Amino acid sequence: MDFFKPLNVDSKTEKKEIKGETEKIECLILGSGPAGYTAAIYAARAGLTPVMYQGMEPGGQLTTTTEVENFPGYPQGVTGPVMMEDLKAQAERFGSDIRWGMATSADLSSRPYKVVIDEEKLIEAETIIIATGATAKYLGLESEEKFKGAGVSACATCDGFFYKGKTVAVVGGGDTAAEEATYLAGLAQKVYLIVRKPYLRASQAMQNRVMNTPNIEVLFEHQTKEIVGNSAVNGAILLKKPGEPDEQEVKINIDGFFVAIGHKPNSDIFTPWIETDEIGYIKTIKGSTKTNLPGVFACGDVQDPIYRQAITAAGTGCMAALDAERFLKE
Ligand code: NDP
């Protein structure tokens, strides 16, 4: 993606001239999932007048989920989109300035830090709270690319509706795949769950749900070779026990193919300055949300390869706002 080009890093990097207005602020929050909104609530109550840019997916990943049953305070559960609207309203109540727009490049070489929004507006910020989350991964097949939007999706709750009474496949063995398969089983006539290992990685509760849903068939030790169709998906070619002597090619007839194989942290525009692990998760100093740059904090899924829950994201969002407040006072 073009807009992930770093700004003014060195002479080899393309320097973009930003023609729009420049705005100076104390606290910039990037991303609007539970981490970003919680940071906004705390930062606004502390008088930092935070400005939040919501990013490509306002409300974050939870807006693509159905029922959230494990967020404390909702004894009957809540849908992801409703919870995010509640968090937004709470952040706005204390004066957070929540805006549409996405950080398209950054220059974190010196303070105030510079972030470009939608390739045209320059923000100069004393502190930045990075809460940009993570994005769904795809298998990387050519046919997958070809059928994106025509039968291939990474979001069952967004696109499941189109497969009422049809047959679909979900690929992946984690909680996301298990959740998407059970959700789709309520709409589709049949769901194949394609799992590359001989077991599911999902939590026991999610595994039980999958196994107790009669119209889900789990295909263990299968990998997708190709997705097939004409103008839209009508099948997939799978390899059973790939690489083994008894490898077998299997064709399934499906109308939709849902990819649920994990996520990539959205840290690309910061990586010239911010330390990350090999996957791209931002490294924070233990017990804090501090990054290697003074005044730049990271919270939520962009820095969390382990827990990745709404409640842990919210917790680190709170920490980031407190860290930013202390930094500005010092
Ligand atoms: P995970 O990383 O947990 O699982 C990814 C799955 O995709 C694994 O089974 C992995 O296989 C499989 N996979 C990865 N690459 C490929 C590939 N190229 N081909 C085939 N399969 C592949 O990601 P999730 O998105 O499921 O979960 C992320 C985190 O979010 C987890 O911590 C999870 O617990 C949490 N979560 C919690 C929910 C809840 O509490 N309601 C709901 C959803 C997620 P393998 O096992 O072989 O590595």
Task: Describe the protein's architecture and organization.
By secondary structure, this protein is α/β, with parallel strands linked by helices. The protein folds into 2 domains: 192 residues, FAD/NAD(P)-binding domain, CATH 3.50.50; 122 residues, FAD/NAD(P)-binding domain. Helices cover 22% and strands 27% of the residues. The chain has 7 helices and 19 strands. The strands form 5 sheets. Strands 1, 2, 5, 6, 7, 8 and 19 form a 7-stranded mixed beta sheet that branches. α1 links the parallel β1 and β2. The relative contact order is 0.18. Bound molecules: NADPH dihydro-nicotinamide-adenine-dinucleotide phosphate. NADPH dihydro-nicotinamide-adenine-dinucleotide phosphate binds next to α5. The site of NADPH dihydro-nicotinamide-adenine-dinucleotide phosphate (NDP) has 17 residues, from α5.
Through-space gap between termini: 37 Å
Oligomer: single chain
- Indicate the overall shape: elongated
Number of helices: 7
Bin the strand percentage. Answer: 25-35%
Question: How many beta-strand runs?
Answer: 19
CATH class of the largest domain: Alpha Beta
Question: Which ions, cofactors or small ligands are bound in this entry?
Answer: NADPH dihydro-nicotinamide-adenine-dinucleotide phosphate
- Going by helix content, strand content and strand pairing, the class is alpha/beta
How many domains? The number is 2
Q: Report the average pLDDT across residues.
A: 91
Helix share of residues?
10-25%
Low-confidence stretches: 1-15
